[in-house]
Design a protein that fits this description.
single chain; alpha/beta; Alpha/beta knot; seven-stranded parallel β-sheet
Length: 159
């Protein structure tokens, strides 16, 4: 098995504690680094947040950032993949690279349109074919992360 290079999940202003807790658990399960950016819609001491992450908080590398530019300035050579239902390409149409930062917006508004418009080559959407308008944030994070892990051969049975 080749050396592991972690992916990064970036949550910009997450609002719902169980979503962030579930994503933290996902990060612990996949050795993915979690970045929480901007004003959080909850306290990190929140009971629901802790419950969703169960006993796995110690297994997650978490970083806090005042805003997205501060995170990007710290990792100037990193590639940021932005997720939005308004992106032109799907999450399977991009070639992920180990170490990519997978960026997700807040549950009620997503990422700003200006960010997606300025980064069309690194913005992706998850196709939705039914009548719902969006997926749950933790579901979306899992879908994109596991596709990135699959493409980079970082899953035990990956190709």
């Amino acid at each position: 098995m080749k050396p592991y290079t972690p992916f990064h999940i970036v949550l910009v202003e997450p609002e719902i504690p169980p979503n962030t807790g579930n994503i933290a658990r996902l990060c612990g399960a996949t050795r993915t680094v979690l970045h929480l950016v901007g004003k959080l819609g909850f306290s990190t001491d929140d009971r629901q947040l802790k419950r969703a992450g169960l006993d796995y908080w110690s297994a997650v590398e978490i970083h806090y950032w005042p805003d997205l530019p501060a995170l990007q300035a710290t990792y100037p050579s990193a590639r940021f993949i932005y997720t939005s239902k308004k992106a032109a390409r799907t999450h399977v149409a991009i070639r992920y690279e180990a170490g990519d930062f997978l960026v997700f917006g807040k549950e009620t508004k997503g990422l700003p349109d200006s960010l997606i418009d300025a980064n069309p080559e690194t913005s992706v959407r998850i196709p939705i074919t039914g009548p719902v308008r969006s997926l749950n944030l933790s579901t979306a994070a899992g879908i994109v992360l596991y596709e990135a892990l699959r493409q980079t051969g970082q899953l035990e049975d990956g190709d």
